[in-house]
DNA sequence: TTCATTACGTGATGTAGATCACATTCGTAA
DNA sequence: TTACGAATGTGATCTACATCACGTAATGAA
Protein backbone atom coordinates (compact mmCIF):
# COMPACT_ATOMS: atom_id res chain seq x y z
CA UNK A 1 0.00 0.00 0.00
CA UNK A 2 1.04 3.59 -0.59
CA UNK A 3 2.67 5.26 2.38
CA UNK A 4 0.15 8.08 2.39
CA UNK A 5 -2.87 5.80 2.25
CA UNK A 6 -1.46 3.60 5.03
CA UNK A 7 -0.86 6.54 7.35
CA UNK A 8 -4.25 8.02 6.53
CA UNK A 9 -6.06 4.81 7.32
CA UNK A 10 -4.08 4.59 10.57
CA UNK A 11 -4.92 8.16 11.63
CA UNK A 12 -8.59 7.84 10.73
CA UNK A 13 -8.98 4.94 13.14
CA UNK A 14 -8.42 7.45 15.95
CA UNK A 15 -9.10 11.00 14.75
CA UNK A 16 -11.67 12.75 12.57
CA UNK A 17 -9.68 14.63 10.02
CA UNK A 18 -10.67 16.09 6.65
CA UNK A 19 -8.84 15.29 3.42
CA UNK A 20 -7.31 18.76 3.32
CA UNK A 21 -6.20 18.55 6.94
CA UNK A 22 -4.65 15.16 6.31
CA UNK A 23 -2.79 16.47 3.25
CA UNK A 24 -1.32 19.18 5.45
CA UNK A 25 -0.57 16.68 8.23
CA UNK A 26 1.11 14.35 5.76
CA UNK A 27 3.23 17.11 4.23
CA UNK A 28 5.40 17.05 7.37
CA UNK A 29 6.39 13.42 6.90
CA UNK A 30 9.44 12.44 4.91
CA UNK A 31 9.70 9.05 3.19
CA UNK A 32 12.95 7.17 3.78
CA UNK A 33 14.19 3.70 2.94
CA UNK A 34 16.74 1.58 4.78
CA UNK A 35 18.50 -1.69 4.13
CA UNK A 36 18.41 -4.69 6.43
CA UNK A 37 20.89 -4.20 9.25
CA UNK A 38 21.13 -0.44 8.76
CA UNK A 39 21.07 1.69 11.87
CA UNK A 40 18.52 4.49 12.25
CA UNK A 41 19.30 5.66 15.79
CA UNK A 42 22.53 4.82 17.63
CA UNK A 43 23.35 5.32 21.29
CA UNK A 44 24.70 8.83 21.81
CA UNK A 45 22.94 10.34 18.79
CA UNK A 46 20.91 13.49 18.96
CA UNK A 47 17.37 12.20 18.39
CA UNK A 48 15.15 14.50 16.40
CA UNK A 49 12.66 12.22 14.68
CA UNK A 50 10.22 9.45 15.20
CA UNK A 51 9.41 6.85 12.57
CA UNK A 52 6.22 5.35 11.18
CA UNK A 53 6.81 1.98 9.53
CA UNK A 54 5.31 1.45 6.07
CA UNK A 55 7.05 -1.77 5.15
CA UNK A 56 9.57 -4.08 6.80
CA UNK A 57 10.48 -4.36 10.45
CA UNK A 58 12.52 -2.28 12.88
CA UNK A 59 13.74 -3.10 16.34
CA UNK A 60 14.28 -0.69 19.22
CA UNK A 61 16.88 -2.08 21.63
CA UNK A 62 19.23 -1.34 24.47
CA UNK A 63 22.76 -2.69 24.83
CA UNK A 64 24.21 -2.90 28.33
CA UNK A 65 27.82 -2.75 29.50
CA UNK A 66 28.26 -6.49 29.03
CA UNK A 67 27.16 -6.02 25.39
CA UNK A 68 23.95 -7.87 26.06
CA UNK A 69 21.03 -6.68 23.95
CA UNK A 70 17.45 -6.19 25.09
CA UNK A 71 14.73 -5.51 22.54
CA UNK A 72 12.09 -3.08 23.74
CA UNK A 73 9.92 -3.31 20.67
CA UNK A 74 9.68 -4.67 17.18
CA UNK A 75 8.02 -2.15 14.86
CA UNK A 76 5.95 -3.60 12.00
CA UNK A 77 3.92 -1.66 9.40
CA UNK A 78 1.70 1.01 11.04
CA UNK A 79 3.80 0.90 14.22
CA UNK A 80 5.89 3.82 15.45
CA UNK A 81 9.43 3.75 16.79
CA UNK A 82 12.06 6.09 18.19
CA UNK A 83 14.02 6.66 21.37
CA UNK A 84 11.13 8.52 22.93
CA UNK A 85 12.94 9.34 26.15
CA UNK A 86 15.64 11.09 24.13
CA UNK A 87 13.19 12.60 21.67
CA UNK A 88 10.89 14.08 24.31
CA UNK A 89 13.57 15.19 26.76
CA UNK A 90 16.06 16.33 24.12
CA UNK A 91 18.75 14.11 25.58
CA UNK A 92 21.21 11.84 23.76
CA UNK A 93 19.98 8.43 22.64
CA UNK A 94 20.37 5.50 25.01
CA UNK A 95 18.19 3.27 22.81
CA UNK A 96 19.17 2.08 19.34
CA UNK A 97 16.81 1.58 16.43
CA UNK A 98 17.79 -0.46 13.39
CA UNK A 99 16.33 -2.54 10.60
CA UNK A 100 15.51 -6.22 11.02
CA UNK A 101 14.66 -6.26 7.30
CA UNK A 102 14.71 -3.79 4.42
CA UNK A 103 12.32 -1.07 5.47
CA UNK A 104 10.29 1.83 4.12
CA UNK A 105 9.34 4.41 6.70
CA UNK A 106 7.99 7.92 7.16
CA UNK A 107 9.95 10.17 9.47
CA UNK A 108 8.48 13.05 11.47
CA UNK A 109 10.60 15.55 13.34
CA UNK A 110 9.90 16.50 16.92
CA UNK A 111 9.34 20.15 16.00
CA UNK A 112 7.00 19.27 13.13
CA UNK A 113 4.96 17.03 15.39
CA UNK A 114 4.58 19.82 17.94
CA UNK A 115 3.80 22.27 15.14
CA UNK A 116 0.98 20.22 13.64
CA UNK A 117 -0.31 19.34 17.11
CA UNK A 118 -0.67 23.01 17.95
CA UNK A 119 -2.14 23.90 14.55
CA UNK A 120 -4.54 20.96 14.27
CA UNK A 121 -6.51 19.94 17.31
CA UNK A 122 -7.24 16.57 15.72
CA UNK A 123 -3.52 15.90 15.30
CA UNK A 124 -3.04 16.45 19.02
CA UNK A 125 -5.97 14.09 19.60
CA UNK A 126 -4.39 11.47 17.40
CA UNK A 127 -1.04 11.58 19.11
CA UNK A 128 -2.64 11.50 22.55
CA UNK A 129 -4.41 8.27 21.72
CA UNK A 130 -1.45 6.74 19.99
CA UNK A 131 0.57 7.17 23.19
CA UNK A 132 -2.33 6.06 25.39
CA UNK A 133 -2.31 2.75 23.55
CA UNK A 134 1.46 2.51 23.78
CA UNK A 135 1.33 3.17 27.51
CA UNK A 136 -1.22 0.43 28.08
CA UNK A 137 0.82 -1.99 25.98
CA UNK A 138 4.01 -1.17 27.89
CA UNK A 139 2.27 -1.71 31.21
CA UNK A 140 0.85 -5.00 30.01
CA UNK A 141 4.28 -6.19 28.98
CA UNK A 142 5.74 -5.12 32.31
CA UNK A 143 3.11 -7.16 34.11
CA UNK A 144 3.79 -10.14 31.90
CA UNK A 145 7.46 -9.87 32.79
CA UNK A 146 6.70 -9.93 36.49
CA UNK A 147 4.02 -12.58 36.44
CA UNK A 148 4.70 -15.02 33.61
CA UNK A 149 7.46 -17.50 33.04
CA UNK A 150 9.50 -17.48 29.87
CA UNK A 151 7.42 -20.08 28.06
CA UNK A 152 4.22 -18.10 28.58
CA UNK A 153 5.86 -14.89 27.40
CA UNK A 154 7.12 -16.73 24.35
CA UNK A 155 3.59 -17.77 23.48
CA UNK A 156 2.32 -14.23 24.01
CA UNK A 157 4.98 -12.99 21.64
CA UNK A 158 3.81 -15.33 18.91
CA UNK A 159 0.31 -13.91 19.27
CA UNK A 160 1.47 -10.29 19.29
CA UNK A 161 3.90 -10.64 16.40
CA UNK A 162 2.85 -13.73 14.39
CA UNK A 163 4.83 -12.46 11.41
CA UNK A 164 8.07 -12.66 13.39
CA UNK A 165 8.07 -16.41 13.76
CA UNK A 166 10.35 -17.99 11.13
CA UNK A 167 11.17 -14.47 9.92
CA UNK A 168 13.69 -13.07 12.39
CA UNK A 169 16.68 -14.84 13.96
CA UNK A 170 15.86 -16.67 17.17
CA UNK A 171 18.43 -14.71 19.18
CA UNK A 172 16.35 -11.57 18.54
CA UNK A 173 13.29 -13.32 19.92
CA UNK A 174 15.37 -14.22 22.97
CA UNK A 175 16.50 -10.61 23.32
CA UNK A 176 12.87 -9.51 23.30
CA UNK A 177 11.90 -12.09 25.91
CA UNK A 178 14.89 -11.19 28.06
CA UNK A 179 16.35 -14.71 28.15
CA UNK A 180 19.49 -16.25 26.71
CA UNK A 181 19.31 -17.75 23.24
CA UNK A 182 20.21 -21.14 24.76
CA UNK A 183 17.22 -21.07 27.08
CA UNK A 184 14.89 -20.10 24.24
CA UNK A 185 16.24 -22.90 22.09
CA UNK A 186 15.67 -25.51 24.79
CA UNK A 187 12.23 -24.08 25.41
CA UNK A 188 10.67 -24.44 22.00
CA UNK A 189 12.44 -27.71 21.20
CA UNK A 190 11.23 -29.49 24.31
CA UNK A 191 7.78 -28.02 24.76
CA UNK A 192 5.93 -29.41 21.78
CA UNK B 1 -1.92 22.58 49.52
CA UNK B 2 -5.40 23.07 48.17
CA UNK B 3 -6.45 20.48 45.62
CA UNK B 4 -7.23 23.10 43.02
CA UNK B 5 -3.89 24.88 43.39
CA UNK B 6 -1.99 21.59 43.24
CA UNK B 7 -3.70 20.49 40.05
CA UNK B 8 -3.29 23.92 38.51
CA UNK B 9 0.43 24.00 39.22
CA UNK B 10 0.71 20.49 37.76
CA UNK B 11 -1.16 21.41 34.56
CA UNK B 12 0.75 24.66 34.06
CA UNK B 13 4.02 22.75 33.93
CA UNK B 14 2.86 21.28 30.64
CA UNK B 15 0.12 23.42 29.11
CA UNK B 16 -0.63 27.13 28.68
CA UNK B 17 -4.06 27.64 30.08
CA UNK B 18 -5.85 30.78 31.24
CA UNK B 19 -7.42 31.12 34.69
CA UNK B 20 -10.92 30.92 33.22
CA UNK B 21 -10.03 27.86 31.17
CA UNK B 22 -8.55 26.20 34.23
CA UNK B 23 -11.65 26.93 36.28
CA UNK B 24 -13.71 25.20 33.62
CA UNK B 25 -11.21 22.34 33.42
CA UNK B 26 -11.25 21.95 37.20
CA UNK B 27 -15.04 21.96 37.39
CA UNK B 28 -15.04 18.43 35.97
CA UNK B 29 -13.01 17.01 38.84
CA UNK B 30 -14.64 15.65 41.96
CA UNK B 31 -12.85 15.60 45.33
CA UNK B 32 -12.97 12.32 47.22
CA UNK B 33 -11.33 11.00 50.35
CA UNK B 34 -10.43 7.43 51.25
CA UNK B 35 -9.16 5.62 54.32
CA UNK B 36 -6.01 3.55 54.45
CA UNK B 37 -6.69 0.10 53.03
CA UNK B 38 -9.83 1.19 51.20
CA UNK B 39 -10.30 -0.09 47.68
CA UNK B 40 -10.88 2.32 44.80
CA UNK B 41 -10.92 -0.08 41.87
CA UNK B 42 -11.34 -3.86 42.21
CA UNK B 43 -10.84 -6.54 39.61
CA UNK B 44 -14.03 -6.99 37.61
CA UNK B 45 -15.32 -3.46 38.23
CA UNK B 46 -16.55 -1.21 35.46
CA UNK B 47 -13.87 1.49 35.37
CA UNK B 48 -15.14 4.95 34.60
CA UNK B 49 -12.68 7.29 36.31
CA UNK B 50 -9.06 8.13 36.71
CA UNK B 51 -7.62 9.65 39.87
CA UNK B 52 -5.24 12.51 40.60
CA UNK B 53 -3.62 12.21 44.02
CA UNK B 54 -3.67 15.28 46.27
CA UNK B 55 -2.49 13.69 49.46
CA UNK B 56 -1.53 10.21 50.60
CA UNK B 57 -0.46 7.25 48.50
CA UNK B 58 -2.28 4.78 46.25
CA UNK B 59 -1.07 1.57 44.74
CA UNK B 60 -2.12 0.04 41.42
CA UNK B 61 -1.62 -3.72 41.48
CA UNK B 62 -2.40 -7.02 39.86
CA UNK B 63 -3.17 -10.26 41.69
CA UNK B 64 -2.53 -13.52 39.84
CA UNK B 65 -4.19 -16.92 40.22
CA UNK B 66 -1.76 -17.92 42.97
CA UNK B 67 -2.84 -14.77 44.87
CA UNK B 68 0.55 -13.21 44.36
CA UNK B 69 0.46 -9.43 44.09
CA UNK B 70 2.45 -7.28 41.68
CA UNK B 71 2.48 -3.51 42.12
CA UNK B 72 2.52 -1.62 38.84
CA UNK B 73 2.76 1.81 40.38
CA UNK B 74 2.65 3.74 43.60
CA UNK B 75 0.80 7.04 43.13
CA UNK B 76 1.98 9.93 45.30
CA UNK B 77 0.65 13.53 45.26
CA UNK B 78 0.44 14.92 41.67
CA UNK B 79 0.54 11.39 40.24
CA UNK B 80 -2.35 9.82 38.36
CA UNK B 81 -3.73 6.31 38.73
CA UNK B 82 -6.42 4.07 37.28
CA UNK B 83 -6.75 0.83 35.37
CA UNK B 84 -6.03 2.55 32.09
CA UNK B 85 -6.47 -0.56 29.97
CA UNK B 86 -9.99 -0.94 31.33
CA UNK B 87 -10.70 2.79 31.29
CA UNK B 88 -9.61 3.32 27.68
CA UNK B 89 -11.01 0.10 26.24
CA UNK B 90 -14.18 0.09 28.34
CA UNK B 91 -13.43 -3.39 29.61
CA UNK B 92 -13.71 -4.75 33.15
CA UNK B 93 -10.87 -4.00 35.56
CA UNK B 94 -8.01 -6.47 35.77
CA UNK B 95 -5.95 -4.06 37.88
CA UNK B 96 -6.84 -3.04 41.44
CA UNK B 97 -6.24 0.38 42.96
CA UNK B 98 -6.33 0.94 46.69
CA UNK B 99 -4.97 3.18 49.43
CA UNK B 100 -1.60 2.62 51.04
CA UNK B 101 -2.46 5.49 53.41
CA UNK B 102 -5.40 7.80 54.00
CA UNK B 103 -5.79 9.68 50.75
CA UNK B 104 -7.37 12.77 49.22
CA UNK B 105 -7.87 12.60 45.49
CA UNK B 106 -9.62 14.25 42.57
CA UNK B 107 -11.55 11.95 40.26
CA UNK B 108 -12.19 12.60 36.58
CA UNK B 109 -14.57 10.51 34.52
CA UNK B 110 -13.61 9.13 31.14
CA UNK B 111 -16.38 11.03 29.40
CA UNK B 112 -15.51 14.32 31.12
CA UNK B 113 -11.88 13.93 30.11
CA UNK B 114 -12.87 13.41 26.50
CA UNK B 115 -15.31 16.29 26.71
CA UNK B 116 -12.77 18.81 28.00
CA UNK B 117 -10.15 17.49 25.60
CA UNK B 118 -12.43 18.18 22.65
CA UNK B 119 -13.53 21.56 24.00
CA UNK B 120 -10.11 22.80 25.11
CA UNK B 121 -7.15 22.21 22.83
CA UNK B 122 -4.77 22.86 25.74
CA UNK B 123 -6.43 20.12 27.79
CA UNK B 124 -5.77 17.67 24.99
CA UNK B 125 -2.18 18.92 24.93
CA UNK B 126 -1.84 18.39 28.64
CA UNK B 127 -3.13 14.83 28.57
CA UNK B 128 -0.97 13.97 25.59
CA UNK B 129 2.15 14.99 27.49
CA UNK B 130 1.08 13.39 30.70
CA UNK B 131 0.82 10.06 28.91
CA UNK B 132 4.04 10.65 26.95
CA UNK B 133 5.88 10.89 30.24
CA UNK B 134 4.09 7.84 31.60
CA UNK B 135 5.02 5.87 28.50
CA UNK B 136 8.69 6.75 28.80
CA UNK B 137 8.66 5.84 32.50
CA UNK B 138 7.00 2.50 31.81
CA UNK B 139 9.54 1.69 29.13
CA UNK B 140 12.38 2.63 31.45
CA UNK B 141 11.03 0.36 34.14
CA UNK B 142 10.64 -2.48 31.65
CA UNK B 143 14.25 -2.09 30.65
CA UNK B 144 15.34 -2.05 34.26
CA UNK B 145 13.47 -5.29 34.79
CA UNK B 146 15.25 -6.96 31.92
CA UNK B 147 18.71 -5.57 32.58
CA UNK B 148 19.16 -5.02 36.30
CA UNK B 149 19.31 -7.41 39.21
CA UNK B 150 17.03 -7.02 42.20
CA UNK B 151 19.49 -5.04 44.29
CA UNK B 152 19.94 -2.43 41.58
CA UNK B 153 16.18 -2.14 41.10
CA UNK B 154 15.77 -1.72 44.83
CA UNK B 155 18.18 1.20 44.81
CA UNK B 156 16.39 2.75 41.82
CA UNK B 157 13.14 2.49 43.73
CA UNK B 158 14.55 4.41 46.68
CA UNK B 159 15.53 7.21 44.29
CA UNK B 160 12.15 7.26 42.52
CA UNK B 161 10.05 7.07 45.69
CA UNK B 162 12.24 8.26 48.61
CA UNK B 163 9.10 8.87 50.68
CA UNK B 164 8.19 5.20 50.55
CA UNK B 165 11.15 3.99 52.52
CA UNK B 166 10.13 3.44 56.16
CA UNK B 167 6.60 4.46 55.21
CA UNK B 168 5.06 1.43 53.53
CA UNK B 169 5.36 -2.25 54.53
CA UNK B 170 8.35 -4.00 53.03
CA UNK B 171 6.20 -6.65 51.36
CA UNK B 172 4.74 -3.89 49.19
CA UNK B 173 8.21 -2.85 48.16
CA UNK B 174 8.88 -6.49 47.29
CA UNK B 175 5.65 -6.64 45.26
CA UNK B 176 6.80 -3.59 43.30
CA UNK B 177 10.22 -5.08 42.65
CA UNK B 178 8.70 -8.41 41.65
CA UNK B 179 10.58 -10.47 44.22
CA UNK B 180 9.52 -12.38 47.31
CA UNK B 181 9.51 -10.53 50.62
CA UNK B 182 12.12 -12.99 51.92
CA UNK B 183 14.54 -12.10 49.15
CA UNK B 184 14.04 -8.39 49.74
CA UNK B 185 14.63 -8.83 53.46
CA UNK B 186 17.91 -10.65 52.90
CA UNK B 187 18.92 -8.06 50.35
CA UNK B 188 18.78 -4.93 52.41
CA UNK B 189 20.01 -6.61 55.58
CA UNK B 190 23.14 -8.01 54.00
CA UNK B 191 24.06 -5.30 51.54
CA UNK B 192 25.06 -2.50 53.84
C1' DT C 1 32.09 -22.69 -5.58
C1' DT C 2 34.63 -21.58 -1.51
C1' DC C 3 35.29 -19.71 2.78
C1' DA C 4 33.98 -17.02 6.65
C1' DT C 5 30.62 -15.44 9.45
C1' DT C 6 26.42 -15.90 11.74
C1' DA C 7 22.80 -18.80 13.52
C1' DC C 8 21.47 -22.63 16.10
C1' DG C 9 21.53 -26.99 19.27
C1' DT C 10 22.91 -29.22 23.40
C1' DG C 11 25.58 -30.85 27.48
C1' DA C 12 27.73 -29.51 32.11
C1' DT C 13 27.80 -26.53 35.83
C1' DG C 14 26.90 -22.34 38.71
C1' DT C 15 23.69 -19.10 40.97
C1' DA C 16 19.92 -15.80 42.08
C1' DG C 17 15.90 -16.04 43.82
C1' DA C 18 11.46 -18.93 44.97
C1' DT C 19 9.36 -21.63 48.28
C1' DC C 20 8.56 -23.71 52.75
C1' DA C 21 8.91 -23.56 57.60
C1' DC C 22 9.07 -21.37 61.80
C1' DA C 23 10.39 -17.72 65.21
C1' DT C 24 9.92 -12.92 66.57
C1' DT C 25 8.18 -8.30 66.71
C1' DC C 26 4.86 -4.78 65.72
C1' DG C 27 0.40 -2.46 65.33
C1' DT C 28 -4.17 -1.86 66.31
C1' DA C 29 -8.74 -2.79 68.05
C1' DA C 30 -11.32 -4.06 71.98
C1' DT D 1 -3.58 -3.14 78.97
C1' DT D 2 -4.15 -7.43 76.47
C1' DA D 3 -4.33 -10.07 72.50
C1' DC D 4 -4.48 -11.41 67.88
C1' DG D 5 -3.32 -10.81 63.19
C1' DA D 6 0.05 -8.65 60.23
C1' DA D 7 4.77 -7.73 59.21
C1' DT D 8 9.42 -9.17 59.37
C1' DG D 9 13.83 -12.11 59.87
C1' DT D 10 16.28 -16.27 58.80
C1' DG D 11 17.57 -21.09 57.78
C1' DA D 12 17.08 -25.14 54.46
C1' DT D 13 15.95 -26.65 50.16
C1' DC D 14 14.63 -26.45 45.19
C1' DT D 15 14.52 -24.73 40.42
C1' DA D 16 14.63 -21.89 36.34
C1' DC D 17 17.74 -19.83 33.90
C1' DA D 18 22.62 -17.98 32.96
C1' DT D 19 26.98 -19.05 31.49
C1' DC D 20 30.59 -21.63 29.35
C1' DA D 21 31.99 -24.79 25.96
C1' DC D 22 31.76 -26.94 21.83
C1' DG D 23 29.87 -28.82 17.49
C1' DT D 24 26.93 -28.37 13.31
C1' DA D 25 24.11 -26.00 9.88
C1' DA D 26 22.82 -22.06 7.23
C1' DT D 27 23.88 -17.75 4.86
C1' DG D 28 26.16 -14.48 2.12
C1' DA D 29 30.05 -12.16 -0.09
C1' DA D 30 34.25 -12.75 -3.12
Termini separation of chain A comes to: 37 Å
CATH topology of chain A, which one? Jelly Rolls
Structural class call of chain A reads: alpha+beta
Superfamily at the CATH H level of chain A? Jelly Rolls
Order of strands in the sheet with most strands of chain A:
1-8-3-6
The biggest chain-chain interface is:
A-B, 32 and 32 residues
Described by strand count, sense and barrel closure, the largest sheet of chain A is:
4 strands, antiparallel
The number of domains of chain A is: 1
Number of strands of chain A: 8
Structure report:
Two copies of one chain form a homodimer. The model of chain A has no long low-confidence stretch (mean pLDDT 95). The first copy, chain A, has helices spanning 3-12, 19-26, 84-89, 110-119, 121-147, 150-160, 170-177, 181-190, and strands at 30-34, 39-41, 49-55, 58-63, 69-75, 80-81, 96-99, 103-109. With 192 residues, chain A is α+β, with helices and mostly antiparallel strands. Chain A is 47% helix and 21% strand. Chain A contains eight helices and eight strands, in the order ααββββββαββααααα. The first copy, chain A, has a single domain (1-147), classed as Jelly Rolls (Sandwich). Chain A is globular and about 55 Å long. In chain A, the strands form two sheets. Chain A has a four-stranded antiparallel beta sheet with strand order 1-8-3-6. The first copy, chain A, binds a DNA duplex (30 and 30 nucleotides) through residues 149-150, 169-171, 179-183, 185-186, 189.
Amino acid sequence: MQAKALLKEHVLKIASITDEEFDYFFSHFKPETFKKGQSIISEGDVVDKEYFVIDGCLKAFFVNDEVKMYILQFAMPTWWASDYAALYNKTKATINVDCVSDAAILSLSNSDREKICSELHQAEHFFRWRTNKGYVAAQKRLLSFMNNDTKTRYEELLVLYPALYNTVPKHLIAAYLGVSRETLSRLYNSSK
